[in-house]
Write a structure and sequence with these properties.
This protein is α/β, with parallel strands linked by helices. Among the domains are: 236 residues, FAD/NAD(P)-binding domain, CATH 3.50.50.60; 116 residues, FAD/NAD(P)-binding domain (3-Layer(bba) Sandwich). 32% of the residues lie in helices and 17% in strands. It is built from 18 helices and 19 strands. The strands form five sheets. Strands 1, 2, 3, 4, 5, 6 and 17 form a seven-stranded mixed β-sheet that branches. The protein has a five-stranded parallel β-sheet with strand order 7-16-8-9-12, with helices on one face. It starts with 13 loop residues before the first strand and ends with a helix. Bound molecules: ligand NA7. Ligand NA7 binds next to helix 5.
Length: 549
């Protein structure tokens, strides 16, 4: 596929574009389509050898889309994609999501403007020309008036710092950068570190053929039945027939889901009513558990306990060994870590070849060439699977580390907090836009739809600037402060900041600790529209340097 990508320039040359995009995942691909439609010249860079971003990298066994599921984890800008693409299951596996994205690339001939296998190593703003310059791993360079960072909210892997880990001589894989060659677990002793979405999806699959699986659990998790099922011809016909209504619902819903906003209050119902509802939703599975249960679970401790206790009872019912079930009991507020859907995770602990190690009582001391040593002794292993997550939301922006006005690196600007306005722009970094970055609904929103809506806003900014001969836009410092206060006020009204999670940055040592996603749901998009309709209050513009000459 990479052969279809943008041809390489002659060595040492520099190319010039209207828009530069870093990342050819769900967001960057849509950005390319959108800005191209506006008549702009666009170049996209990606380190991978083809499109897909997250879906190109996360090939671990059991990887599936959750959230809105298929077919609603999708682009909505054209009816054609909905009409011509047949999803097989409600929670399609990674290869099917990737196939959809490849189809999008083929359908709109995207690859000719994407340079694959090219890491962007540096990005710097030039005040005189009002342009960004990108330096890449292949030595080629490009400038652009606008820089779109579609770098992924969950793409910079988090690797644990455990003594001796580099000495382990067996196979080692991180779920977020899974190899493209087939990985066999047949007859192997496998240690899995991490029980977030990735670990919980992978463990039952690995256990099917491995000789032994050691699940090294730092935090016990709530997980809900995925309820994955094949989509029938009738399902597909119905989704297509009511697509207009469904799309309107997605736009109106706080998370971009095809559902009505939840209004039931748990504490207004009896315990029996609550349990009956939880049971019904548990049997059906999917994110509907959150969408169709109660609106106050993330804000009321009592409501939260009602759901948490229900799930704990379910875990005890499924897991036969009471000691193992004890270790699997979560002790944080339910939903305050990223909700997880599972396909046989708790059942896996009923297999003879799966051993749960609770790291809180039996911590990892070190790795050797042939095994992992916990306080209780050494476990010989052939393979280590790191399902240890990501430096989420802000990590990939910091890895890119653009240099803004005065050459200030973002790492310096974001030392204490990920300052930004509207989750899109940063003071001191003109014409740079983030997709799904800190301060945006990002990871709390249906990602393809969120990308479309943010890219749409950026396109409007560009049009506004073009028609007025403006060369640079950036938010005022005061707007950033006000936006940051709003992000924190919304979060602090919920239980979310009271749990350690990747949402709060707690999973990465040294990372600023605060809840950085915008929890206002669809209010966010009203705020974006309002800002555009009022000609961008809170931002300052500079005239185009060309028009000053
Ligand atoms: P997560 O949700 O961040 O999970 C990572 C897991 O790894 C989690 O259980 C962590 O425990 C654990 N972890 C991380 N570092 C360590 C160390 N040093 N020692 C032991 N355990 C550790 O990442 P995922 O990839 O599962 O999910 C991200 C996805 O969420 C994303 O791809 C979307 O699909 C949804 P902790 O809970 O921090 O104690």
């Amino acid at each position: 596929m990479a052969s279809q990508s943008a041809p390489r320039p002659t060595p040492g040359s520099i190319e010039h574009f209207d828009v530069l995009i870093v990342g050819a995942g769900v967001s960057g691909m849509y950005g390319l389509y959108h800005f191209r439609q506006m008549g702009l010249s666009v170049r996209v860079y990606d380190g991978a050898s083809d499109v897909g971003g997250t879906w190109w990298y996360n090939r671990y066994p059991g990887a599936r889309v959750d959230g809105p599921g298929s077919p609603y984890y999708c682009y909505t800008f054209t009816d054609e994609l909905m009409k011509e693409w047949d999803w097989e299951e409600t929670q399609s596996e990674q290869s099917a999501v990737l196939a959809y994205l490849e189809h999008f690339a083929d359908r709109f001939d995207l690859r000719r403007d994407i340079r694959f296998e090219t890491w962007v190593k540096g990005a710097s703003w030039d005040e005189a020309t009002q342009r960004w310059t990108l330096e890449t791993s292949t030595g080629e360079r490009a400038t652009g008036r606008y820089l779109i960072c579609a770098v992924g909210a969950l793409s910079t892997t988090n690797l644990p710092d455990i003594p001796g880990i580099e000495d382990f001589a067996g196979e080692t894989y991180h779920t977020g950068s899974w190899p493209h060659h087939p990985v066999s677990f047949e007859g192997k002793r496998v240690a899995v570190i991490g029980t977030g979405s990735s670990g919980i999806q992978a463990i039952p699959e690995i256990a099917k053929t491995a000789d032994r699986v050691y699940v090294l659990q730092r935090t016990a998790q709530y997980a809900f039945p995925a309820g994955n099922r094949p989509l029938t011809a009738e399902d597909r016909a119905e989704a297509r027939a009511s697509w207009e209504t469904i799309r309107a619902k997605m736009y109106a819903h706080p998370g971009g889901f095809p559902a009505d906003p939840n209004s039931r209050i748990a504490m207004e119902e009896t315990p029996e009513q609550r349990d009956a509802l939880y049971e019904k939703l548990w049997q059906r599975g999917s994110f509907r558990f959150f969408l169709e249960s109660y609106a106050d679970v993330a804000v009321s401790e009592e409501a939260n306990a009602s759901m948490a206790n229900f799930v704990k009872r379910k875990i005890r019912e499924i897991v036969r060994d009471p000691k193992t079930a004890d270790k699997l009991m979560p002790n944080h507020f339910v939903m305050t870590k990223r909700p997880i859907l599972e396909n046989g995770y708790f059942e896996a602990f009923n297999r003879d070849n799966v051993t749960l190690i609770d790291l809180r009582e039996d911590p990892i001391e070190r790795f050797t060439r042939t095994g992992v040593v916990t306080r209780s002794g050494e476990k010989p292993i052939d393979m280590l699977v790191l399902a240890t997550g990501f430096d989420a939301i802000s990590g990939s922006m910091l890895r890119l580390d653009p240099k803004g006005r005065g050459g200030v690196p973002l790492k310096e600007r974001w030392k204490e907090r990920f300052h930004n306005h509207l989750g899109l722009m940063i003071h001191g970094y003109p014409n740079l836009f983030m997709i799904h970055g800190p301060g945006s609904p990002g990871v709390f929103y249906n990602m393809p739809l969120g990308a479309e809506r943010q890219m749409g806003w950026i396109g409007d900014v560009i049009r506004h600037m073009q028609t007025r001969q403006l060369g640079a836009i950036e938010p005022m410092k005061a707007s950033e402060d006000a936006w940051g206060a709003e992000v924190s006020a919304l979060a602090n009204a919920t239980l979310f900041p009271r749990t350690d999670s990747w949402w709060t940055g707690a999973n990465v040592p040294g990372k600023p600790r605060y809840f950085s996603a915008y929890l206002g749901g669809s209010i966010y998009y009203h705020r974006l529209a309002e800002t555009a309709s009022k000609d961008y209050p809170g931002f300052v513009f500079e005239p185009d340097c060309e028009s000053k000459k």
